[in-house]
Amino acid sequence: MDRLKITTFFTLLGFALVILRLFQIQIISHEYYQMKAEAAHRRGEEIPAERGKIFASGGVLVTNEEAYRVSANPQKVEDPEGVAEKLVAVFMEDSRFLSYNPVPVEEDDPRAFHAARIAELLARKEQRGVDLARKVAAAQVAKIKGMSITGLFFSPDERRFYPEGPMAAPLTGFVAFDEDGRDQGYNGLEGYYNGDLRGKAGRIIREYDERTGDPILIGDSTELAAQKGADLYLTIHRGVQGVLERKIAEGVRRYGAKSGSFVVLDARTGYVLAMGNYPSFDPGNFNAPQEEGNPYPREFRNLALATTYEPGSVMKGITLAAGLDSGKITPAWEFVDDGPLKLGATTINTWDGKHWGKQNLAQLLQKSNNVGAAKLALEIDRDTLRSYFLNFGFGSQLGIDLEGEEAGLVKELKEWRQVDLANAGFGQGVGVTALQMVSAYAAIANGGVLMKPQVVERLIDRNGRQVNFSPEPIRRVISPETSEVLVELLRTAVEGGESVALRDLNYRISGKTGTAQIPVEGKYDPNKTNATFVGFPFKDRSFVMLIRLEEPSSSTFSATTVVPLWVEVFREIAPLFGISPDR
Fold first, then answer.
1. What residues does the Penicillin-binding protein dimerisation domain cover (predicted)?
2. Fewer CB atoms < 10 Å away: N or C end of the chain?
3. What secondary structure, in 3-state letters, does 436-460 show?
């Protein structure tokens, strides 16, 4: 009897424990086990957002094209090596494939590398999903689908498309991947406006067959739609941009320069009408191998704002502005050029060693006289000249809406010795960007106001809401009266200057040349120069254009290199602005 009671007790206890456990699972921990069960057969996938487009002058500069992520279930692939060879043969038909599926630098056979990589992924039989390639063109995907290879699947993975090829590439930047494999803009507009352009990814949760790993077509699914990125509308004039890109490439080759860069600004608004450089790159194929026989390596930077250089004599216009506007000199100021100027152990001479006796401001500019500019800087004093340099925007970022802007260099006041002051008067010892210099001359042209340069005029989001970016003054740097005096002086500098190309131009131009020796190992190399010309139509003043050639080898002087190039460009673009010859 006691044994029966004991047996009954333990039996009932067992039933009680089972009931208690079922209560815990079904009631207390119901949500936990439900989530665990769902996780076993429900998986979430990110839905990429459509990246915003970029427009210029009513045309599409950057858009998107259909492309796919190619993935596979290795458990369903019977011949990993054979399938890998077939896939890579199709992938490599697309010239852009390697930009999104790069090969390590040490690998010299991209096809063999990808075939081995994909074969290794397909051999992982313990996995049900592996990514084989990103952003594969729609044409290649259609061809692969026609091969009837089991175990492959494809998901949308749009890529950037450039209807006008590499036009404005240093300005637009490019799109690659971040460390998590998501689209990320780099450089230029793509980098600066990445947060606006990329939109917001969506998400879809589907039911999957636990045995095969395939989605259940009639199963439950939950989808959060992706939100498209905003579109950008630029200030760029595509006609002007096209002319400049063609001519800068011609100029670099013709004069044997290392590179060339250009900026065209609307003087009144600060809007960038054209900007770029040669060499450049193809934003749609940014990892492509270097072309055989091309001596110019790809350049991803926007040289107009991402490189700092000593400007040379083009700075003389700013030195005159400082002297006149501060009241340190009057338009009647004169100096005597009676030989080289000696300051301690340093001797400052004219560029050609000639000396001209008594000279005025117009003659200083016409002959680009370094002795006169140095004497003028000493007359102004270091506090005043440095202050005007800073006010004109040198030594700090202007705030343009592009990634990669450099600040330039204006030394601390305590570092300005007398010789540094004299040298600064003609653009030595000061580091600027082309964007800073053209913006400074735009201020001279527009009546004395430094404008914030900008590339995007408006932004339109997915809901059609429009954000306009109005012209933004930074500060007044000189008075309107000083501006008018300078514009006239810069006109006389052109018409009475050393350049035959400018003298023969049938348009009246205000501007200044700059031939700046490049410092090498602490000394200026007379055989290496930066050649610059910046100018604008004297009467219209609607735009200011700067062109710079880095180390032209056919001649070290701007008058015989960059100035003829600038004149050729001006003749082509003046009609686009409705400007007629006026001399």
1. 47-210
2. N
3. HHHHHHHHHHCCCEEECCECEEEEE
What's the angle, vertex CA 292, arms to CA 290 and CA 296, rounded to 5?
A: 60
**Strand pairing class (466-468; 259-266):** unpaired
> HSE on the CB side for 157, CA within 13 Å?
24
Strand partners, 334: 360
Residue 233 · residue 261 · CB < 8 Å: no
The answer to whether 410 and 299 have CB atoms below 8 angstroms apart is no
CA atoms within 13 A on the CB side of 58: 1
Per CATH, which fold does 67-157 belong to?
Ribosomal Protein L30; Chain: A, (3.30.1390)
pTM of the shown model:
0.89
CB atoms within 10 A of CB 105: 6
CB of 382 closer than 8 Å to CB of 423: no
Q: Which positions of the chain have pLDDT values less than 50?
A: 33, 36-37
Whether 269 and 471 have beta carbons less than 8 Å apart is answered as yes
Return d(Cα 330, Cα 183) in angstroms, integer. Answer: 57
Q: Are 231 and 55 in contact (CB under 8 A)?
A: yes
Question: What backbone phi and psi angles, to 5 degrees, belong to 208?
Answer: -120, 150
Cα dihedral 25, 27, 28, 34, rounded to 10, equals 60
DSSP element (H, E) containing 389: helix 382-391
Q: Where are the domains of the chain?
A: 2-42, 67-157, 238-283+294-577
d(CA 30, CA 331): 90
**Residues present in the chain in total:** 583
> Do strands 54-56 and 231-234 pair parallel, antiparallel, or not at all (unpaired)?
parallel
Q: What is the pLDDT of residue 225?
A: 84
For residues 177 and 194, what is the distance between their CA atoms, to the nearest angstrom?
A: 12
| CA-derived radius of gyration, the chain | 33
Angle between helices 382-391 and 370-380 (to 10 degrees): 100
Between CA 390 and CA 386 the distance in angstroms is: 6
pLDDT score for 43: 60
Burial 389-415 (b: 16+ CB within 10 A, else e): bebbbbbeebebbbbbbbbbebbeeee
Across the strands, what pairs with 337?
Answer: 357
Single-letter amino acid code for the residue at 363: Q
Tokens describing residue 419: 């010789």
Tokens of 160: 């950037």
Cα distances from 112 to residues 78, 84, 89, 495, 504, in angstroms, run: 20, 10, 10, 63, 60
Superfamily of domain 238-283+294-577: DD-peptidase/beta-lactamase superfamily (3.40.710.10)
Looking at residue 175, its amino acid is V
Question: How high is the pLDDT of residue 430?
Answer: 97
